[in-house]
Amino acid sequence: MSHHQTSDYDDTTLRIREHYRQALTNVWRYFPAASRLIVLEEDLEVSPDFVSYFSQTSHLLDLDSSLWCISAWNDNGFESTSSDPAALYRVEHFPGLGWMMTRKSVQQLLDVWPTEGEGYDWDLWVRKDSNRLGRECVIPDVSRTYHFGISGSHASGAYHALYYQDHAINQRPDVQLRNVNGLLKDEYEKEIHRLIAEAEPINETDFQLGEIPPSQGGPCEVELEGTNKTYAIFFQMNSMEDTDLYKTLAKRTFPQCFAIWDLDARGHHRGLWRFHNNDNTVLMFGVPLNLYM
User: Fold this and answer.
1) Has domain 12-181 been given CATH number 3.30.470.20?
2) Domain coordinates in residue numbering, the chain
3) How far apart are CA 196 and CA 24, in angstroms?
4) Dist. CA 123–CA 140, nearest whole Å
5) How much is the pTM?
6) pLDDT tens-place string over residues 213-252
7) What is the spatial distance between Cα 58 and Cα 138, in angstroms, rounded to a whole number?
8) Max alpha carbon distance in the chain (Å)?
9) Count of CB atoms within 10 A of residue 123's CB?
10) Residue 209's CB: how many other CB atoms inside 10 A?
11) CA–CA distance from 51 to each of 145, 181, 188, 292 (Å)?
């Protein structure tokens, strides 16, 4: 165990960021032969297959330079929106909350890690485009960690209840992940195009996106009926900053539509969000942001 002295930093954000920098640096000091690391915060519960999950996916970081992390966490993996513990996705967002990187990728971050000024939280800094360099992370449909920390430097009980309490975590110890090499860049694009070809399209005009009282069904006029179907939903989104319609569709407080992460537009791949709804697969495309339409 390594203890770090970060009390010289009065600002909590800077202190936590420095703690991460020292911890990441010391991994290579104590384990010089290690080729990768897993970061696990103290306020996370792990699934029974946590180690197996990373064991089955770690080789992707060696095979595909367009990937830079494997995460155990799906920001949009709530009880109502995730159901397949064998499924994996690619996302542009760095999720954190239990993650693996190669030594090379971690060192790239450490080489430019800010030690003062720049009041970014450590994870917001890691997510900067200048650090991500167009690379993506692999995430599970059903998370392998559960965030139980109710209070912290940027959290409250109400925040936890809304964004973490009903987050799904896998409970099976023996999950064999499906088609892991299908997460390689070219193979993944083939799978996306296959899903698009079989999807039933739903346009923005099929949704009633006003502030409708919950007693009248919320903002979604269309219900996704049946099971094991694939739906493609299209909504206007010109850029990652153009989030008004996204937040209406994602909204977690009533009136609800899909109730995924709604603070910002995270968890997408090339402008495409994937999740489950009533045992159906949902493909949600920001238009013209996405690169498929």
Assistant:
1) no
2) 12-181, 185-288
3) 40
4) 19
5) 0.90
6) 444 444 565 677 777 899 999 888 999 999 998 998 898 8
7) 10
8) 60
9) 15
10) 16
11) 11, 18, 24, 34
